[in-house]
Amino acid sequence: MMSLASCPLVLIGAxxxxxxxxxxxxxxxxxxxxxxxxxPRPSDTMMGLMSEAGATHLTEAPKNDTTAGILFLAxxxxxxxxxxxxxxxLIGPQTVVVSIAAGKTLAGIEAYLGKTAxxxxxxxxxxxxxxxVTGAYANETVSEPQRSLVETLLKVSGPVEWVATExxxxxxxxxxxxxxAYVFYLVECMAEAGRKCGLPADLAMRLARExxxxxxxxxxxxxxxxxxxxxxxxxxxxxxxxxxxxLMDDNGMQPLFDKAIAAAKKxxxxxxx
Length: 273
Known about the structure:
elongated; Rossmann fold; alpha/beta; 273 residues; ProC C-terminal domain-like fold; P5CR_dimer; 11 helices
């Protein structure tokens, strides 16, 4: 897929998101020998994957004169201040830094690593099953070849959408980054409503889970807009229309989601450092 022999792909953190990326890269043909993973305590699964692929595993930043071609930061935001300083020797003129840590601005990263080509990306947890979506912003130092290469690497977990400003990443975080939790809570609410209508709790949960999973797959595969798919299910005067008259009321789901996502965006802005 690519040649990173002289300037390797360095992944910092092989947890849920980092591990999903690593697995996707190897499946898509990135040679393991070109990958360095720095993680003090990777899981047994990740250790096995790295060993089988021939990737290099380190518990800390290398002491030699290694220069990263791409430096992927996949650690929790609260760990970044401790993780970043030892990584500065890895930065060279051709390095592009990619951060998937929520709340850590490019300015905050550059305070430790210096001015460099850098990209902020916000994937979401369905990336762990190859069905995520990532919002990304590239600073002015990122070249088109670097941007294209990073997009290819991010696409192993799903589509990539580029935004015009770094501030837009806060909105991406609120919508798609946190979004899976909203969908999971929808399943909880549907199941509880089914239980209150008389269904056994376990049956109600199975029906809710499969309904949301199936509707998501239909949305994924269909060329139709979400509104068209909704209308296709809704017969005039029928049961779906009765439910939607409540959900689409002036006090229904839209104003509630407006408030919820605005609250998430505000919190993302507050956390930005």
